[in-house]
Design goal:
By secondary structure, the protein is α+β, with helices and mostly antiparallel strands. About 20% of the residues lie in helices and about 35% in strands. It has 3 helices and 9 strands; from the N terminus they run βββββββββααα. Strand 3 and strand 4 form a beta hairpin. The relative contact order is 0.14.
Length: about 180
């Protein structure tokens, strides 16, 4: 999404409204695929402060994310707002300033950066997702397994011999081991 700012560069304090859509390609982020189900809708305004241009915008993106518990993909609508500062020259002391060239501002990289910051840390298809069994890999949302019971019986006999004395002492005190 490219915005022509030639008209607001002439006068400090002037601003311009914008509205549009930005197509983004699916990406790999932190080892996971982030899929875009359509363009990101963006609206806001850009203001000339003298030294910088300041973009204040609201965005809506429809994403395809992978659940961190059951590994299935699910759709999520992500609404977020952002403020970005832009300059024609880079400032090594302020890495948060975006660079623009000529008399146009390309919002593509800015939108992507702020979108990535808004992604949920723990991605889940729903709050009640039970995930996968750590032993057999079954999807516990679909079917139950009895791995927990089997593992408990196996672990009772498989105590590390170095910890056997501790287990006996804790058991003698009535503590659960």
């Amino acid at each position: 999404m490219i915005i022509d700012v030639s008209d607001i560069l002439k006068e400090k304090g002037s601003s311009k409204e914008f509205r549009g859509s930005q197509l983004l390609e699916d990406i790999m982020y932190q080892g996971e695929r982030i899929g875009f189900l359509g363009p990101v809708d963006v609206s806001g305004h850009i203001t000339n402060t003298g030294k910088l241009l300041v973009v204040d915008a609201d965005a809506v993106a429809k994403l395809s994310l992978q659940c961190g518990r059951c590994t299935k993909y699910y759709d999520k609508e992500l609404k977020f707002s952002f403020t970005a500062r832009l300059s024609k020259v880079s400032d090594p002391d302020d890495p948060d300033i975006f660079i623009y060239e000529d008399e146009t501002v390309d919002l593509k990289d800015i939108i992507l950066e702020f979108l990535l910051l808004e992604l949920p840390m723990r991605r889940r298809c729903n709050e009640e997702c039970k995930g996968l069994c750590p032993y057999c890999g079954r999807d516990l949302n679909v079917e139950q397994c009895n791995c927990d019971e089997q593992v408990e019986h196996q672990e009772e006999g498989n105590v590390d011999l170095r910890l056997l004395a501790l287990r006996k002492a804790l058991f003698a005190n009535g503590e659960e081991v």
